[in-house]
Design a protein that fits this description.
With 324 residues, the chain is of the alpha/beta class. The chain has two domains: 4-113 and 297-317, Rossmann fold; 117-288, 3-Layer(aba) Sandwich (Rossmann fold), CATH 3.40.50.720. Helices cover 34% and strands 18% of the residues. The radius of gyration is 22 Å and the shape is elongated.
Length: 324
Amino acid sequence: MPQPYAKYQGEPVSKLVISTSSFDVDNNPPLQRLLKAGMQIVSNSHGRKLTEEEISGLLGTDTVGMIAGIEPLTENVFASASSLRVVARCGAGLDSVDLAAAQRRNIAVSNTPEAPSQAVAELTLGLMLAALRRICQTDRQLRAGEWPRIQGQLLAAQVVGIVGLGHIGRRVARLCQAFGAEVVAHDPYITQSPDGIALLPLEKLLAQANVISLHLPYGSGTHHLLDAAAFARMQPGAVVINAARGGLIDETALGEALTSGKLAMAALDVFEQEPYRGPLLKCDNIILTSHIGSLARESRQRMEIEAAENLLQGLIKAGLMENT
C-alpha cells in the first residue's frame, strides 16, 4: 500500500496525493510549506504509471489536491474523489485529464508547459542523431563481437519536418537549424511562420521531409495521425521520431513500414501502452526509450517545483490553505 512521505503530528489536516512515479519532496519548498501546514502527502508506491482503478484507490474520498503524472483522470476518477479540488500536472500535456469533467466538478487544473520543454527537445535531438548515424545498431553489433562500418547520414543534409510548433517543437526546430538542417513545419494553430521555417500542410510535409518529428498533443483528432497512409506518403528511407504521445502513431503500421524498408529508422520515447512490451522490440531499425523525455535532472527539478507551486496556489485560491 502507498505510504505517506510525511505526516503532521496528530491527525492530518488534509490529504494530498503525488501520483507521479517519482518525486523529490525533500527539496521542494512549496511542498515543505504544505507539510508544515499539516498536509499529509501520499505517494505512488508502484514506480510506474497508475491505472484508472489504482489512481481512484489512491485518491479515495479525502484527497483535496494532487500532483498528477500521466495516469487517466477520467469522469469516473473525479466522481469517486469527492473532496478533490486541485490537480497540478507535473508536465506539459493535459490529454490524460478529462478537463470538462474537472470543470463540472469545480476542480482547478494546471500544468507546467515550459519546464520540461528543453529536456524533451534535447532528447528528441539525441534520438534524431542516433537514428541518422545508426549509433544504437553499431553499439549492439560491436558488443556482439563484430566491427561494423555502418554508413549513416548527416543531420545537416536533411529536411526536418516538425509537426507541432509549441514550446518543444520550436526548440527542436532551432536545434536542427543550428546543425544546418532545413526545417519545415505543420501546425494548424500557427498562422505566422517562424524565422527560416516554411509552414506546410501535413500531406506536403510528409512528402518533403526526410526526418519527421512529432510535438503535438494527443486527442481524438490526432489519434494515429501517422498511420499506414501517412507512411506511404513519406519519402523512401525517411526517419520518424516521437517523443510526444504514443497514440499519435499507429504502431502496427509503423512496424510494417520499418520491416518493408519504407522507413529507414524510427525512434520512440512514448507508446500507446506503457510499459511497452509489443512487437517493435524485435525491430532492429528502431530506437526505443522508456518515456524519459522530461527525466533530465535540472528540468525535472524545475518541473516538480512549478507543479508544487501550482498546487499550493490552487489550494490557497480554493480556501484550503492560508496565504501566509
